[in-house]
Design brief:
The structure holds 2 protein chains of 2 kinds. The longest helix of chain A is centred in the middle third of the chain and has 18 residues. Chain A contains 4 helices and no strands. Chain A is flat. In chain B, the strands form 3 sheets. In chain B, strands 11, 12, 13, 14, 15, 16, 17 and 18 form an 8-stranded antiparallel beta sheet that branches. In chain B, α1 runs antiparallel to α10. Chain B starts with a helix and ends with a helix. Classes of the chains: A mainly alpha, B alpha+beta. At the A-B interface, α3 of A face loops of B.
C-alpha cells in the first residue's frame, strides 16, 4: 500500500498515532519546505490530540520555520 | 402578567402559585432559562461524572451546549462546548481527552484548561499563526463553576455572587456534613425521565405534606408529624424528619456514620431544595444529590446520585439503599406528571397553598417569581 492509501486508511480508522507517524514520514520525504510544514502541521495536530511524544519535536520544527508559536 | 407574579409573592396564607405559563409556555420557559437557570448557581452534573484527568462529558443544559471536563491538574471545569472558530460542537460523546481538545472541523486545538494551543493552517497551508488571530483571546468560553457536595454548580451569566456567598445558608446549615463524600459508583446512580416542568419536581420534593398519600410505606416509621418545614425565603427550602432509621442488611450490617456529627443527627435527616434545580438529602450514614435537568417546558430528567462516608461500603447494602430511594422517587412521578397535565387547565389560577404545610413550596414559588420580576425589570430598563 502506498503512503497516500495508508494515510487514508489511518484516517478512516481514526488511528491518530499512525497519522502522527505517517504525516511525519511524509514530511521527511519531501524537499519542499512549504509542503513539509503542511505535513508536519498535520502530524503535530494529531500529536496534540493523542498526546504523542513526537509533539515536542514537531512543534520545534514548525517554530524553527516560523510556522508556529 | 406581573400582577399574577405579585399574587405569588403574597404571604402563603393568601398567595397563589405560579401561573400555568411558567409550566407550559415555551416563551416563559425561555425567559426562566435566563432569569432563573442562567442567572443563579444551577446544578449541572456531579464531579463523579468525570472521575479521572481528561474525562470529558458534553451536556446540553436547557439547550446550551456545555462541556464538563476534569483538566490535566485534576480540577473540574465547565466550558461552552463550542469552537471559537466556526462554532462547531467540540465533543459529541463522553470520552477521555488524551492530549488536546481538537475541533473535528478545522482542528483548532484547546488544552483541557481551555487555552487555544494551535490553529493549523490559519495563515495559509503550513502556516499556523496569523497576526490577527490572537490565541490568548480565543480560548474556550469558561462557565463559572464550583463543586459543593460533589455537585458541579454553574452560573452561566457570570453575574451571580460567589458561590460560597450565594449558598451560605445551605452551607452553614449542613456544616457538620462538610466531610469527604464517596459516590457509591454505578449501582448508586440512576436517571428518571418525567413529563413535567422541572419546577414541579422541586415543589413536590420540598414538602412533606404528600408523604402519607404518595409514600404510604413511610407511614410505619416516619409519620407526617415527625417532619418539619424548612423555609428560608429568598434562599432555599425543604423538609426534615426527626425519626430517620438506618438501613440494615439481613445480617444487621449498616453503613458507617459521617464522623463528628452531633446527637441531633442520630435520628434526624434533612432534604433541601437548593434553588433552582438541585435536591439534596443528608442522613447520618449517607447523602444524595438530584440534579434536575430541564429538557424543555414539559420534560425533565432527574439524575440521582448516592454518597457515603467511606469509599468502601457493602455492595449489597448499597444496592438495597439505591433501590429504596428509587422506589420513593418513582412514586413521585405520577404526581409531578399529573400536576403538569393539570396546568393545561386554562382556568387553573396557580392554586392555593396550605398555610401550614406548603410553606416550602411557596418559598420556591416566591423565589422564582422574584427572579423573573427582577429580570423583567432589568429588561424594561434596558429598552
Amino acid at each position: 500500500m502506498d503512503l497516500n492509501s495508508t494515510l487514508i486508511a489511518a484516517h478512516d480508522h481514526g488511528d491518530k498515532r499512525a497519522l502522527v507517524e505517517l504525516y511525519d514520514k511524509a514530511a521527511r520525504d519531501t524537499d519542499d519546505i512549504d509542503h513539509a510544514c503542511f505535513l508536519t502541521t498535520q502530524a503535530y495536530i494529531f500529536a496534540l490530540d493523542c498526546n504523542h511524544p513526537l509533539r515536542h519535536a514537531l512543534h520545534a520544527f514548525l517554530v524553527k520555520h516560523g510556522r508556529e508559536e | 402578567m406581573s400582577d399574577l407574579l405579585s399574587s405569588v409573592r403574597q404571604p402563603v396564607t393568601t398567595a397563589n402559585g405560579l401561573p400555568n405559563a411558567h409550566y407550559i409556555d415555551p416563551k416563559t420557559y425561555e425567559e426562566e432559562r435566563q432569569a432563573v437557570l442562567f442567572a443563579s448557581w444551577a446544578g449541572l452534573a456531579v464531579a463523579a461524572d468525570v472521575p479521572e484527568k481528561g474525562d470529558a462529558v458534553p451536556i446540553d443544559f436547557a439547550g446550551m451546549p456545555l462541556l464538563l471536563i476534569r483538566d490535566r491538574d485534576g480540577d473540574v471545569r465547565v466550558f461552552q462546548n463550542t469552537c471559537r472558530h466556526r462554532g462547531m460542537i467540540l465533543v459529541e460523546e463522553p470520552r477521555k481527552i488524551e492530549g488536546a481538545i481538537r475541533c473535528p472541523y478545522h482542528s483548532w486545538c484547546y488544552s483541557t484548561k481551555g487555552d487555544l494551543v494551535s490553529t493549523p493552517h490559519v495563515g495559509g497551508p503550513g502556516q499556523n499563526t496569523h497576526p490577527d488571530v490572537k490565541r490568548a483571546d480565543l480560548g474556550l468560553i469558561e462557565i463559572k463553576s464550583h463543586v459543593w457536595r460533589d455537585v458541579v454548580w454553574i452560573n452561566v451569566d457570570g453575574k451571580a455572587p460567589e458561590f460560597v456567598d450565594a449558598m451560605s445558608g445551605p452551607i452553614a446549615r449542613w456544616a457538620e456534613f462538610d466531610k469527604p463524600l464517596y459516590h457509591g459508583g454505578d449501582d448508586s446512580k440512576f436517571t428518571l425521565s418525567v413529563k413535567s416542568n422541572w419546577k414541579l419536581a422541586v415543589e413536590n420534593y420540598c414538602e412533606s405534606y404528600h408523604l402519607p398519600w404518595v409514600h404510604p410505606g413511610l407511614n410505619s416509621y416516619s409519620r407526617l408529624e415527625d417532619h418539619y418545614n424548612i423555609e428560608e425565603y429568598g434562599h432555599y427550602s425543604g423538609q426534615g424528619t426527626l425519626v430517620y432509621r438506618q438501613l440494615k442488611s439481613d445480617k444487621g450490617a449498616m453503613f458507617p456514620d459521617f464522623e463528628g456529627l452531633s446527637e441531633k443527627w442520630d435520628t434526624a435527616a434533612e432534604y433541601l431544595a437548593v434553588y433552582p434545580n438541585v435536591l439534596l438529602g443528608v442522613h447520618r450514614d449517607h447523602g444524595f444529590a438530584i440534579i434536575l435537568k430541564p429538557e424543555g417546558p414539559e420534560a425533565t430528567s432527574e439524575h440521582i446520585h448516592l454518597y457515603y462516608p467511606v469509599a468502601d461500603t457493602d455492595a449489597e447494602l448499597r444496592a438495597k439503599n439505591a433501590e429504596l430511594w428509587k422506589v420513593v422517587f418513582e412514586e413521585d412521578i405520577f404526581v409531578v406528571e399529573g400536576m403538569q397535565r393539570g396546568r393545561h387547565g386554562v382556568n387553573f389560577d396557580g392554586g392555593r397553598f396550605s398555610p401550614a404545610m406548603d410553606g416550602p413550596t411557596h418559598c420556591f414559588h416566591d423565589w422564582v417569581a422574584g427572579r423573573v420580576q427582577t429580570y423583567r425589570s432589568a429588561a424594561q430598563a434596558a429598552e
